[in-house]
Amino acid sequence: MTGRNSLEPFGIRLEAAVALHGPVCVGIDPHPQLLEAWDLPVTVQGLRLFAEVAVEAFGGAVALVKPQSAFFERFGAAGVEVLEDVLAGLREMETLSLLDVKRGDIGSTMLAYAQAYLDESSSLRADAITVSPFLGFGSLAPAFDIARRNGRGVFVLAMTSNPEGATVQHATWDGDTVSGAIIEAVSDANCLTPAGGYGDVGMVVGATVGKDIAELGVTERLAQTRAPLLAPGLGAQGATVEDIAGGFGPASHLVLPATSRAVLAAGPDPVALRSALREVQHEAATLRPGSYGGE
Ligand SMILES: O=c1ccn([C@@H]2O[C@H](COP(=O)(O)O)[C@@H](O)[C@H]2O)c(=O)[nH]1
């Protein structure tokens, strides 16, 4: 069972889900081109059908599903309603959700975002969200508080998968890089996590940035954070499981390789979608030997 047991910490729930399904996180990114490829109209009706098939295919089959909020928001309130249904569907199927919404603001506003996505009373609640530390790591405190109180998680952007990210993230300040400082702060946030387990505060470190991890000299620091490392960029952005193993080295066991378009392209047949997912899960099982309990 990977479902929600009242206030069980997110890191523990994630650990159980990864032990059962392996470390892969699959995205639900309803790009207009994918809707068309699935023979669906680029309308909110098309979005709903796409989302329903994705939830049916991925629910109960993977450790973590990551809906990309932007592709729902672009349809306005009706799209957000579909997103709420996706999150509810995943809850029903006892599959952890990570809403990729990349929020970050001054503390008092961050509190409202945290209430929107991490509070048990919200219809938009997910098991975890992505957040941006650009307004200062301390401004994220309300999200950490609400996440912990509700058994939920937060993934902080640290080294993003896009090439432009380096211009900000590799900058140096006070003797450290911005990425290095974020890794340090996340490490501190997870300091009470028992050895071997995931903390409730994760990081986003792209599957594409293996070379940068070595160049910035943060491999060991990453390995010691206890942070689950969401690694988008597998598949459509060109990264492979071998790149992850080579680039993350001793931190590979913390990596949750994330892929969206490469798997979604197998739709609209849910059986084909699930088997595309299985293929990635088999490959990625090498990152966490013995973790994958698939067929
Ligand atoms: O550094 C980052 C952070 C987030 N993403 C998101 O992940 C998916 C990737 O989709 P693919 O189709 O597998 O390329 C998408 O939702 C991004 O917004 C990322 O790519 N990199």
From TrEMBL:
<protein>
    <recommendedName>
        <fullName>Orotidine 5'-phosphate decarboxylase</fullName>
        <ecNumber>4.1.1.23</ecNumber>
    </recommendedName>
</protein>
<dbReference type="GO" id="GO:0004590">
    <property type="term" value="F:orotidine-5'-phosphate decarboxylase activity"/>
</dbReference>
<keyword id="KW-0456">Lyase</keyword>
<dbReference type="InterPro" id="IPR011060">
    <property type="entry name" value="RibuloseP-bd_barrel"/>
</dbReference>
<dbReference type="Pfam" id="PF00215">
    <property type="entry name" value="OMPdecase"/>
</dbReference>
<dbReference type="GO" id="GO:0006207">
    <property type="term" value="P:'de novo' pyrimidine nucleobase biosynthetic process"/>
</dbReference>
<feature type="domain" description="Orotidine 5'-phosphate decarboxylase">
    <location>
        <begin position="23"/>
        <end position="276"/>
    </location>
</feature>
<comment type="similarity">
    <text>Belongs to the OMP decarboxylase family. Type 2 subfamily.</text>
</comment>
<keyword id="KW-0665">Pyrimidine biosynthesis</keyword>
<dbReference type="GO" id="GO:0044205">
    <property type="term" value="P:'de novo' UMP biosynthetic process"/>
</dbReference>
<dbReference type="InterPro" id="IPR001754">
    <property type="entry name" value="OMPdeCOase_dom"/>
</dbReference>
<dbReference type="InterPro" id="IPR013785">
    <property type="entry name" value="Aldolase_TIM"/>
</dbReference>
<comment type="pathway">
    <text>Pyrimidine metabolism; UMP biosynthesis via de novo pathway; UMP from orotate: step 2/2.</text>
</comment>
<keyword id="KW-0210">Decarboxylase</keyword>
<dbReference type="InterPro" id="IPR011995">
    <property type="entry name" value="OMPdecase_type-2"/>
</dbReference>
<feature type="active site" description="Proton donor">
    <location>
        <position position="102"/>
    </location>
</feature>
